[in-house]
Amino acid sequence: MSIVLYHHPYSRAAGTVWALEEAEVPYELHWLDIMKGEHKGDELMALNPMGKLPTLKDGDTVVTEAAAIALYLADRYAYGRLSPKVDDPRRGTYLRWSLFGPSVVEPGTLAKASAWQFKESQAGWGSYDAMLKALEHAVTGRDFVLGEQFSMADVIFGGTVRFMMATKALEPRPALSAYVERLNQRPALKRADAKNAAVCVEHGLKPFS
Question: Is 143 left (phi over 0), alpha (psi -120 to 50) or beta?
Answer without folding.
Answer: alpha
